[in-house]
Amino acid sequence: MRLKEAPSRKGPLRPGGGRVLCDGKPLKNIKMKLDKFIEKQRDEKLATGKTKKNGDFYLVGKMKGFTGYKMKSKIIILLSLCYILTFVNCTTPTRVTVRGRVTCDGKPLKFIFIKLVEFIEHARDRVLEEGYTTSKGAFYFQDEMQNFTGYNIKVKLWHKCYNKQFFEKRCYYKFTPDLPFGKITQKPGKDLIYFDLKEIKLSTKGRSGERDCSNIGNLFS
Question: Between 201 and 82, where is the model more confident?
Fold first, then answer.
């Protein structure tokens, strides 16, 4: 999925215009929003609209105090729709690869428990792979999924990178990092998607995740 600037019929591209493509094909009737970004508050809606048959859109709105950094265009449902058009095929498996490195105050978090799971709404997550980080804090998972949508996989890790208090010495913190956009490759009979989380930076000055004292016996079994 990509956004492509497209010339207007009457001349150069006007501010707030563009074209939306999914695998090179126009995405029509996609809802669009032009918002004013307000830090720590709900964005202010300036304009709404839909893409045309050729994927073109044009949004215009008025605002005070324009800085060039306060405007955002939102494509509602676009990414999920593009995934549906491209990936969701019950007969085509998707090989998912996830890698990264975990640090605590800049130092590798070695031998911590980590899982790659398939998120299932209203049900227990299905474990795809699990293991431990290396002595350098690195991890690498690879598995195949039948119903990959782009939103139904998660990485979960258990760590002790926090300012320990007495009652927490035997507890871990469970943290779920955000996944970046995946790098996609399509091959005959199989789709490949690669997520590189790079460095997951944790700190003892904060508490990354939620305290989990219920799974201690299983973390190192």
Answer: 201
- For CATH 2.60.40.10, the residue range(s) in the chain are 94-219
CA 104 vs CA 73, 153, 159, 215, 219: distances in Å: 35, 24, 9, 21, 19
The pLDDT, as a whole number, for residue 17 is: 65
Dihedral (CA of 165, 169, 174, 179) sign: positive
User: In degrees to the nearest 10, what's the CA dihedral of 200, 206, 208, 209?
Assistant: 180
Fold of 94-219: Immunoglobulin-like (2.60.40)
How far lies 213's CA from each of 22, 96, 156, 157, 158, in Å?
44, 30, 15, 14, 10
Q: Which amino acid is at 75?
A: I
Q: In the structure encoding, which two tokens stand for residue 109, read together?
A: 């978090």
Write down the CATH number for the domain with range 2-86: 2.60.40
Q: Which pTM does this prediction carry? A: 0.56
Beta strands in the chain (DSSP E): 2-4, 17-22, 25-26, 31-36, 44-50, 56-58, 71-75, 94-104, 107-108, 113-118, 126-132, 138-145, 153-159, 172-175, 183-187, 190-202, 210-212
